[in-house]
Amino acid sequence: MDCRLRSYEIRERFLTYFEDHGHHRLPSASLITHDDPSLLFTVAGMVPLKRYITGELTPPSPRLASCQKCFRGQGLRWDDIAEVGDATHQTFFEMLGNWSIGDYFKEDAIRLAWTLLTEGYGLDAARLWPSIYPEDAESERIWREVGVPGDHIARLTDNWWQAGPTGPCGYDSEIYWDWGGRCSCGRANCRPDDECAGDRWVEIWNLVFMEFDQDETGRRTPLPKPTVDTGLGLDRLVAVVQGVRSNYETDLFRDIVANFAARSGAVPGSQRVAGLHVLADHVRAATFLIADGVVPGNEARGYVLRRLIRRALVHGRRVGLRGGLVPGVAAVMAIMGDVYPEIAENRELVESTLGTEEEAFTRTLDAGTDRLAVLLDTGSATIPGDEAFRLHDTYGLPIEVTAEMAAERGVAVDRAGFDAAMAAQRARSRAAHLQVGFEGGPQLPDTRFVGYDTLEADAAVVRIGGSEETEAVEAGLADVVILDTSPFYAEAGGQVGDIGELRFEGGRASVLGTTHAGGARLHSVRVEEGTLATGIAVRAVVDADRRSRVARHHSATHFLNQALREVLGAGIVQRGSYVGPEHSTFDFSFNRALTRDELRDIEARVNHNIRANLRRSVDQMPLSEAKASGAIALIDEKYTESVRVVDFGGWSRELCGGTHVNRTGDVGAAIIVGESSIGQGVRRIEMVAGEAAERRWQETGEALLSAARALRARPAEVPERVAGLQEQVRRGAKELEEARRRGGGLALPAVPSKVEDLGGVAYAVLLVESDADAQAIVDVIDRLFAEQLGGDGVAVVMGRDTFAIKVGPAAQARHIRAGDLAKAAAQLMGAKGGGHAGFGRGGIKDLVQRQSALSGIRDTVRRQAGGDEP
């Protein structure tokens, strides 16, 4: 097993291996499933290939291979640490896979997989255990023929795959990696088919053999073209190849976790480290979702993304995170940006989206913690269950956070009451779902929308409360309010909802956002002064400046749509959009990147029509008449029989319910600031308009002048000078990498050292006297740990400027912590150190104290292990 392989090498080795065996390499599809309405996200490598597998489309080759971006998070729970954040589970992951559609079958599939694992990656065959369906004699025969002993083949009744009650189905065969007896449930001869409760076995590859067609009666007949569908999780494979127990210790995650650890109060070895894993996973997942076109919202994909971001923020607060989520994006980009350029191209969008969501939710979360503080100050020994549920439901404060903060004050939480309130809410949710399905909508009062004509209106509060109706909301609290009349535009069609104020006698409430449910407009409000109650009169006031900025961007997006059709052809199909006050995005079907000339032409056409100051007209007409008039409609949108058509001077004409400027000249100007891919065959253009465009021009001009001054060049010479500097940096980076590799390739051992047994814990020390940087030391300790300690025990590698310590699971079980050892040793040598339970590192300032530090490490390990001095 080559523990020095990096994740990008492991990924590429898989794809190249299957290419060499006649497979066509497919690019990763988007996380958004455009052709499968049954799924919100791409959850497996086979999802983009369904139409090939069913025969609906002809594949480019009967043999296919890919590394597919996947996301599984529709069922996110606030307290889901038990899975996401443990050693092997993430929401976002990469699925390696190979497929045979009517070509090879079990024989070749098994042999290809086995050869790649044992020869391509050098995994120990004795630690690979395949599983089969008990009746699948053919797979058992093939596994025996490739060299797997019969007693290493597990038999699981779960090794049967089918898409549904009818259709393709067949046996599958999983491949498990054995982490060794020290990780088992404690029973002798633990096996994958023993339903082991330990973490000894990790599934790394699943080979699915679709060979039958099952009908309604359960009868199975052989398929005319049997299909092989395999899935190999890259994250788990990298962990196995690199010899680390947790996916979060691999180079796919290590630097992301370190980014959050450096900005938090998480203590190595504590339960809060799982929170760092959640942060790393969720920010990585959010980065990919946003880059692929998902916008935080209250429905479908947007709701999942918003929930993901909020869950990350909650865990950030639990671990004492400073600086928020956005700085973690840089670590994600550094690891994944070269492999998936779409995330690097959309970095600004990712960071701005995360920042906006964080700012909005932090206010709500702050209100929740303030409310909790009030409850704790009452002096009661217990927080009532209904209050704990209110903190969860209204403020997004997880019950675990409530309980933790309460415990610090010696106060208990009525968990039984909380669970009862939660169960009641779920019952109401189910009832509302049935009502929507069978009676045409939940019983919410309709709101008369007047926001096309005015930004202020007198209204009455007809309901307060989302999932549970209440009579009033006091100052400092937040809730959902429905008015009989409203000028607030509700989030729809890509346009954000309005914000503003509700003013009433004796008080006011901030409107933080507006959505809709059926004919009702749901105003998310926070009461600033007084008490907002059902039945009272209010003055509803929209934030006029923000509405104007949103309108400029929405109208500019219409202009962009028309200009795209003129430059690229009328076949352009809109796939989505986001329209906000600071920028807009427009997603459309197109199979290549736009050239610089095309983008210039498109932007010029938009601004030409802005300067033409075309008048806007709005008409309500039958859908058939609107389409006949040439109005652009969204291909996937479901329209009512009567539709609203927005027309600008006969040039731009679309079906749209959003808010717009009166004349094109009101937009001022528009600038295209980005064009990128967000998935296979889908492009995105980002644009700024109005004041945002002015700011962009100013910022760009100032940046150009600053760069010119720094380079002592004229502004027109800056690109050429920068290109020269980039070339110098590339050469320097190459030289550094070569030097690092030379350092990492030090022969083992640099100074001979035997492996000691300290109370049952294997212990090895290696001194590196040559100049080796921190990365070289890490490379060496990875090899030492794997080659001399077999993946467990305690390894120490000491250079002249830096050192590293690695501790395996069995040693950790004896309370030996690498981070604690590194911190103490570094202090002794006049420097700083730290880390987590499995890995620690530090600096060396006083080389004279190196031997004393080594003695201290050895004494601590011996003491913790319970061993005697030899």
Mind telling me which CATH architecture of the largest domain this is?
Answer: 2-Layer Sandwich
In helices, the fraction of residues equals 25-40%
> Using only CA atoms, what is the Rg?
30 Å
Number of strand elements: 34
Q: What is the residue-mean pLDDT, rounded to a whole number? A: 85
For the structure shown, list the relevant keywords:
alpha+beta, single chain, Elongation Factor Tu (Ef-tu), domain 3, globular, aminoacyl-trna synthetase, 6-stranded antiparallel barrel, BirA Bifunctional Protein, domain 2, 870 residues
Give a structural overview:
With 870 residues, this protein is α+β, with helices and mostly antiparallel strands. The protein has five domains: 7-249, Bira Bifunctional Protein, Domain 2 (BirA Bifunctional Protein, domain 2), CATH 3.30.930.10; 254-356, no CATH class; 448-542, Elongation Factor Tu (Ef-tu), domain 3, CATH 2.40.30.130; 552-699, Threonyl-tRNA Synthetase, Chain A, domain 2, CATH 3.30.980.10; 745-865, Diaminopimelate Epimerase, Chain A, domain 1, CATH 3.10.310. 38% of the residues lie in helices and 24% in strands. Strands 1, 2, 3, 4, 5, 6, 7, 8 and 9 form a nine-stranded mixed beta sheet that branches. Strands 13-15-19-18-17-21 form a six-stranded antiparallel β-barrel. Strands 29-30-31-32-34-33 form a six-stranded mixed beta sheet, with helices on both faces. A hairpin with a 2-residue loop joins strand 18 and strand 19. Helix 6 (254-262) runs antiparallel to helix 9. It starts with 6 loop residues before the first helix and ends in a 5-residue tail after the last helix.
